[in-house]
Please model this.
Amino acid sequence: MAKRVAVIGSGVSGLTSIKCCLDEGLQPTCFERSDDIGGLWRFKEKVEEGRASIYQSVFTNSSKEMSCFSDFPMPEHFPNFLHNTRFLEYLKLYAKRFDLLNYIKFKTTVISVRKCQDFSTTGQWIVVTESDGKQESTVFDAVMVCMGHHIESFIPVQSFPGIEKFKGQYFHSREYKSPEGFQGKTVVVIGMGNSASDIAVELCQTAKRVFISTRGGSWVMSRVYDDGYPWDTVFHTRFSNLIRSILPWPLLKRVYEKKMNQWFNHENYGLVPQNRYALLTSLMKEPVFNDDLPSRILCGSVVVKPIVKEFTETAAIFEDGTMEDNVDVVIFATGYSFSFPFLEQSVIKVENNEVSLYKQVFPPTLEKPTLAVIGLIQPLGPIMPNAELQARWATRVFKGTRTPPPLSLDLASLSQTLQTDHIEYLDELAEGSDARPRILPLLLKDPILALTIYFGPCSPFQFRLTGPGKWDGARNAILTQKARIIKPTRTRVVRNSSNNSLISYLLKIFGLLALFAAIFVSLQ
Model:
């Protein structure tokens, strides 16, 4: 009899977890508290308890070739960066293609997940759910937690004295939906992440004045990168990753800073990170992606200020002593906290918004590895391929075809933050599902494909070339991804005015030599 698996949530992580269960011959049952799939990517006019919430204008920060599931490319006519409605459309296409809806119980809330009495031998869980006011208890062989980390808003009120006396309106960015109702108002947005920047840029078109208050600044990147390609298709290549790994640290910092300031000088805009020498660290913690913010600052529509020191009834006093009076609205874009209210702390313990998980997936203290957390990460890159590989690995562990995590682990050695290094983490997960591409053997067998994998975007299709779950369309998807990137932008065909094929060829030869050198050094 197939093992039964409970999947909690039907967003990106939940949908791919259902499919991975089916691929491994497991029997999934997904519990979704709302009435439809999509999770974070399903926009609702009103904030709903227990669900992630986005504003109406949200676009993806990762391009379609890097954000798709590994055996289901996005339609070629889709733009490279998607509005939330278009991304939700893709998720629905995915669910329909693999018949996932039949395994989802909508309007069903998970109340508790606890170990069976014989857990040490069976690894089973008792899952209590509630639907239409009625509770039901079911035994499952494994559980996949797919809730994400954008549900519980975090407002550090203790860090902002006087906020309780402020007579204007203040709320978390989770509650922001659109610029409607902000006409003629003075707004202070606290934070310097993607949400803060998006909201400030959007509001400055209708509000009287908009300020961004930041403690540490941030690097700001455009979605448009070298030669007009999406940033992640250029940044996330195996060749680029090798160069970043072998460059001396001082030189790497200099290269990064020059690249970050190539678009505009961050220091002149008041945005340079407070500790600029922690450049790589700040970059890997995800820069801000906003194509309009520098222009809005240049035009005076958005003003960057240091962090607010305190509030009065009507004003915000900043750390540099300046004050902005007659403030109407304060929006806290100060991130999220996360928890697992249906789990006992003995299973997963969250402290200071950090949690110890083996390879960001398995709780390290369980006698049986039958509970996995999927998608609780924040990579510099798309979460979709990461969550999918997590689910592929976890379901193989559940099935017993992969070696389970070791029982004796040094908890201090486990990563507790959500940040991951994109390509290294993908490869690490792919090892667990026998899906990591092997460049050198592939170079001898299929040199064109090997060179494309090494120099081209590290797209999800690379992890369907081999191993369980191998997809026959993976090779073609890799070799045609450039055409899919260009198709939605080249809507007016023009004659090619330059021929850079020779230069491109020589660069690839140089990179290939560097690859062989790196392999040789690693074997020594």
Notes: The mean pLDDT is 91. Residues 59 and 83 are 4 Å apart (CA to CA). The first helix runs from residue 12 to 23. The two ends are 49 Å apart (CA to CA).
